Amino acid sequence: MRNVERTRLAAGILLMVTTLLTAGCAALGDNPEDPFGSFASALSSGDASKAAEHTTDPAAAESAISDMFTHLGENAEVRVSAHDVDDESGTGLLTMSWEFGEGRGLDYETGGRAIDTDDGWRLEWSSTLLHKNLAPGTHLQYSDDKNVMTPVVDRGGAALMTWHTVGVVTLRRDALSEGSAALAPVLAGIDPSITDKSIKSAAGQQQTDVVTVATLRERDLDSVRSRLESISGVTVVEQGKLLTVDRALKSPLLGGIDKAWNDRISRGAGWSVSIVDDSGNPVDQLTSVAAQPADPLQLTLDRRLQLLAQQAVAAQGKPAVLVAMSTSTGGLLAVAQNSAADAGGAIALSGLYPPGSTFKTITTAAALSSGTATPDTVLPCPGRATIEGRTIPNEDDFDLGAVPLSTAFSRSCNTTMATLSNRLGPDALPAVAEQLGLGVDFVVPGIVTVTGAVPRADSPALRVENGIGQGSVTASPFGMAVVEASLGHGSMVLPSLIVGETTTANMTPEPLDPRVIGQLRAMMRQTVTSGTASALSDIGGLGGKTGTAEYGDSGDAHGWFTGISGDIAFASLVVGGGSSQPAVEVAGDFLRPANEG
């Protein structure tokens, strides 16, 4: 009987101890007398200050824990795996589980000692509470191992962008007054746009104590390094950056490509967690996964054509852009803007303007598709015509009399086109525009684009205005290039930039009748051989449409030229060019050397 009672007593004590331990584990962090649980709970919530309060040296602990969160992130789950506390002291083990992204994790066990102080139970502070191998002067460090040497290449494999060492030049705000005046002439030899005024303007736009002034390529940095070091308040920080292989190579297409490049090299990136010293040198590697080779990020861009396009727009004093696209693939071959155009942002891709007479391609397509006219239909082309109360003039009031539609198109007769558009239904122009991609919303990986808008025209007066590319019609150079590429392709193209990435559109319209496309292409060719673009008649096979689009009340006008030359569809625009002549010059300067290659 006595043995049975002893057995029952022992079992009861064991049950009570087990229950207390279980209850303690279930309430980690809620018991002020459980320093291990409270410490673990605070670390799991990412609260360095609260975790530090449960140690014997809160100041040192908070500094070390904050440093750990800085270098590893705050995605840690910390739990008490074992602890043994008596009346005055105890020991415990903590399991640290870190997450650094999908498939990236690190688990390890560490531990420490708890003591009963005047302020209650505390963990005796030591950096080994965070990792058993941490020593003074070292910290934990997570590192991505991305293959940054992966290049961005053009459609033929020629390098467009590679990883470069750059120097970020900054100036302390409290040294701005004298520092900018001394810094400007040093940097102006590399970038003439940097002036005392531009540096101070940049300072006004940055809300920091240190103003970022410029990012210099390594060769440029080396040429001015000693002079920069002599200017009070100037600091140069070297880092890596994705840049074009040639400073002369630039395009709105490349402005956001670093995100796609980073996504590419991140897919097979390696990673590691190490203990490093104050200089960042590894002392102990805790885990590592090697990076996998990354294929180059290939763009549809053609490096040679891009440089030719840049030279063509640079010759213009007013804002000028050119967009070139492959008719066979929809791939963007070149997008160039001169410095005057750059001031307005990426206008080649998303700037909206009245398309003027280039829109007559769509008006003519609508007339041909509806049976309203054929290329041989003889129509009047007076110098002026009053239609629905709106007087429409031809340029310089030229008068052709009665001519076939093909002649009216090639000579850009406003009065003829206004009369034709008045015979069409309110939805005719929007429907044909969508068949050629104008007014369609494309999601093109790597860039943001807008094509334009062709609203329904319920009033005859608006149909007249819209039919000659004025009124409520707008288009971007990108949108007009899509129109020309779709004509060359035979159906609406899906424009693209990154090879292997899929462009989507908010609609898939039926293609134009091939007979209509053939008739349009013939009229476009006639425009070059004997019409308003005859200055380019030496370019074999070229077909196009000129456009002058008035804006505002002053009579100012933009100049357009759009067309197709072989596999290249294009749109050139000179903002405020006054006539189509400057845009024709841009296209000629681009196409002549392009066709020689």
From TrEMBL:
Pfam name, any one: MecA_N
Domain Penicillin-binding protein transpeptidase: 322-578
Keywords: Cell cycle, Cell division, Signal
GO biological process, one term: response to antibiotic
Endpoints of the signal sequence: 1-26
NTF2-like N-terminal transpeptidase domain segment(s): 31-136
Annotated PROSITE patterns: PROKAR_LIPOPROTEIN (PS51257)
GO MF annotations in UniProt: penicillin binding; peptidoglycan L,D-transpeptidase activity
GO cellular component: plasma membrane
PANTHER family: PENICILLIN-BINDING PROTEIN 4B, PEPTIDOGLYCAN D,D-TRANSPEPTIDASE
UniProt name for this protein: Cell division protein FtsI/penicillin-binding protein 2
Organism field: Williamsia limnetica
Lineage: Bacteria, Bacillati, Actinomycetota, Actinomycetes, Mycobacteriales
